[in-house]
Amino acid sequence: MEDGKKILVGVTGGIAAYKVPGVIRRLRETGCEVKTIATEAAFRFIPEETLSIATGSRIHSDKTWWEESGRVEHVSLARWADLVLVAPATADAMARVAVGLGDDLLSATVLAGARRVLWAPAMNPEMWRNPATTRNVQTLEGWGHSFVGPGEGVMASSEEEPGVGRLADEAEIVAAVERTLSVDAH
Q1: CA separation for the pair 136, 133 (Å, rounded)
Q2: CA distance 154 to 177
Q3: Residue 35 sits in a domain of what CATH number?
Q4: What Gene Ontology terms describe where this protein resides (cellular component) (predicted)?
Q5: Do residues 105 and 64 lie in contact, with contact meaning Cβ atoms separated by under 8 Å?
Q6: What is the dihedral of CA 131, 137, 65, 31, to 10 degrees?
């Protein structure tokens, strides 16, 4: 991957959020500059400090919507990023964007003209198979957004039966970032 690519990682409120610092570390090791947005629900699963240490900078959230200059962060972050990676991408996060809701910093940033968006879904298998989720994925793909995963296996939520819904592994996500960046922006 080219050094200096700017990746904005959007962390949502799924249990797989605990895996995101590893993804961020791998992205930084490839020479990417990384910033992170976390939804308020994400902080129920991973501390802000952990994300900040992994990213190497402050975390953007609904609390930081306005910059000190008076500019709104969702516009400046959308313009800054070569790619927005949403990981884990919950059914809720995908639905919010697919129907045009922009009342949190992450969804507003995606809707504010992010050049490329890569979703890494992670959710219960029944949620992944739900017709509403399928429709939302199709809508986002129709806009030119990309997806990596979900994978199959035992869920972090202690599901006994394996199913499709696991967050893709770190190497798979980083490879998908590289592929997505190599495609011309839509």
Answers
A1: 5
A2: 25
A3: 3.40.50.1950
A4: phosphopantothenoylcysteine decarboxylase complex
A5: yes
A6: 140
Per the structure, the complete domain to which residue 149 belongs is given by: 6-182
More confident residue, 126 or 8: 8
Task: Tell me what the pLDDT averaged over the chain comes to.
Answer: 90
Number of domain units in the chain: 1
First to last CA, the chain: 20
Which token pair is 168? 């893709």
Q: H helices within the chain, ranges in order?
A: 20-29, 48-55, 73-80, 91-98, 105-111, 125-129, 131-142, 170-182
Q: At what angle do helices 91-98 and 131-142 cross, to 10 degrees?
A: 50
The answer to whether position 1 is within a domain reads no
Residue 86: is its pLDDT beyond 90? yes
Residue 12 is assigned to a structural domain of this protein: yes
C-alpha angle 101-106-108 in degrees, rounded to nearest 5: 45
Token pair, residue 53, equals 């240490």
Tell me which amino acid residue 147 is.
F
Higher pLDDT, 143 or 151: 143
Instruction: Please list, residue by residue across 86-111, b when 16 or more beta carbons sit within 10 angstroms of its beta carbon and e when fewer do.
Output: bbbbbbbbbbbbbeeeeebbbbbbbe
